Amino acid sequence: MPALLEIAYRLLKRGRGFGLDLTGWISLAGLVMGVACLVVSMAVMSGFEKTLRESLSDVTGHVQIFRYRIGNEPPEKLKERVQKIVPETKAMTRFLSVEGVLAHKGRIQGVFMQGLDEGEAWKVLNLERRLLDGELAIRGASKESPNARVLIGKGVAETFGLKPGDTFRLLVPLPSEFDPQEFKRKIGVFEVAGVVELGKFEYDQRMVMMPIKDLQKLADVGSRDSGFILRVEDGLKARAASFRLSEQLGPGFRVRDWRDINENMFDAVEIEKLVVFFVILVIVVAASFNVATSLYVNVVQRYPEIGILKALGVSPRQMVGVLCLQGVALGIIGCTAGLGLGVVLGYFFEWAQTNLGLLPASVYKISYIELDFRPQDILAILGVTLVICVLATLAPARQGAKLSPVEGLRYE
Description:
Elements: H1 2-13, H2 22-60, E1 63-67, H3 75-85, E2 89-104, E3 107-116, H4 121-124, E4 131-134, E5 148-153, H5 154-160, E6 167-175, E7 183-196, H6 201-206, E8 207-211, H7 212-219, E9 227-232, H8 238-249, E10 253-257, H9 258-261, H10 263-301, H11 303-311, H12 316-356, H13 361-364, H14 375-401, H15 405-409
Parallel strand pairs: 3-8, 5-7
Antiparallel strand pairs: 1-9, 1-10, 2-3, 2-6, 2-9, 4-7, 5-8, 6-7
């Protein structure tokens, strides 16, 4: 084997440009670009999936339990049941979801209000890195501070020009006690404690987070809540936990994990990732066969050397191995250069997101993608590329192996 490697290296190196003409170098450049495009596209698609997953789990937790049937079971007893069903639960908090209207300086907009337990919320949600301004704290109304302090999404702050310390009004329509076709309104005044970027366009444009007691008072629901939000030890296993909860809690509850919230989008990302891989792989296939064409010309030019090797006892099978090693060497060069170029293009993509507004959040649902270069994606790209290069070089290798020593030495 070392002797075959040495022969392959000398045959490839001898002459100008490793035996490649201008067309061969252009083909090798195409192989590099194809690998680079594959690396970047897979990193972007994987990063999109990861960013969306983190955005959902940071804001909505890993598992949400909605209870529709209001019974006599107190929240603490329900928490004990959930803990027994899902022992890997790290933290749990009550929540209340209500839709309403935000009014400020003559402008109104529909918002989604989420009431959270002041003491437990930040053990379940992960918003520290998403805080843009102010402080990450929600506090209920008191004698010292008559207005409850709340968190608002970045889009809400931009739409209404709100900043920490400002006050605004929230309105909740409530059904009339006398006429079911009419509504009465209830208004509350709140103070902005902080502005957060929630990682998803709809959340940034509509989300308001506040203490659950203040939202219960505003919505006039007494001590009722919507259910519980859970954080488990491994977010990727949240679906299994949600299945167990659905089976054992009974019909009065609805359980969903972070993936259920955007099931269609995650399925679309997986399909698009596979489609993009095979579409861009066509570039690699075309470049590999162009490189093989240049190697075929190289074989013709090396007839005397091949004739001498066969006269010295190199078998046809060994000759095929020698010539295929040349294709593998060029494939390794293309893969290495393509991988490096792909990483560079990936960092340029991240720079463009920040400085050029490359991803409109209203279109892509998220405003920033953190690229994810997954080892399995890199190995798949390199493995498939090398296999294609080897297959592409089989034809010129077999042609060289069929050469008769007499034919190769005729003009020597």
